[in-house]
Amino acid sequence: MPPTPSAAATTPAAVTSDSSTHGVPPALELRGLHKRFGQKVAVADLSLRVPAGSFYGLVGPNGAGKTTTLSMATGLLAPDAGQALVHGVDVWRDPVTAKAMLGNLADGVKLFDRLTGEQLVTYNGLLFGIPHDEIARRAADLLALMDMTDAAGTMVVDYSAGMTKKIALACALVHAPRLLVLDEPFESVDPVSAANIQDILTSYVAGGGTVIVSSHSMDLVQRMCDHVAIVAAGRLLVAGTVDDVRAGQSLQDRFVELVGGRRHTEGPEWLRRS
User: Fold this and answer.
1) Could you give the angle at the alpha carbon of 110 between the alpha carbons of 105 and 113, nearest 5°?
2) Which CATH superfamily is domain 7-101+177-271 in?
3) Residues of the chain with pLDDT under 50
4) Rounded distance between C-alpha atoms, residue 241 and residue 17, angstroms
5) Is 180 helix (H, G, I), strand (E, B) or coil?
6) Residues 241/17, Cβ–Cβ less than 8 Å
């Protein structure tokens, strides 16, 4: 089994976030997660601690290993090595206890789309043992929050991409988890719905929950999150508070500086008009 490095050891310039507050375990702790697909190392001994009560952004270029990392952290993909702990509970040794505290919106995972939106939220609530009367109340509340009351009786297969994203978020929230892990939650969501979702998530964190959000929007992460981690090529480059990580720059500029690959070019001559 590969060794488990600390987040600080990933890069000499790394910034690390406080792992706990007054002895409280982090909401999510990743210890040396490692995953290989054939000859390709997708995630290389990645360690990260997400403080309870934080709004944590995970950013990186395409193919950086974000989705693979979150899939291992939430019990969807078995790591080759390492551990993932939700509030101190090992996701792979005690998945029932860990997943009861976890709400997950995974990118690309298929839903039971031959159910209506209301039925899908209800089904997810039943999986967590919530009584029928309570599920009905929660489903109604969540559908209203997502501005989807009128679509409650429509089958999910007939939803737009943005509506599908919102009903998946409702499913992740129905059992009132302590930790939300959201992979690209704003992709294909219209600006008004995105603003409403941000309000919901901000209120959730203010009420004691923890959110981890993966996104390609640096501006959104800088405005919404209080902590951020940047990953590239399956490795953690830097992690900490947003202000510490961006080091006086915009998060976008800091990201480009760390990740590299920016090319200043005018493109081929045939694309330029004289």
Assistant:
1) 110
2) P-loop containing nucleotide triphosphate hydrolases (3.40.50.300)
3) 1-20
4) 6
5) strand
6) yes
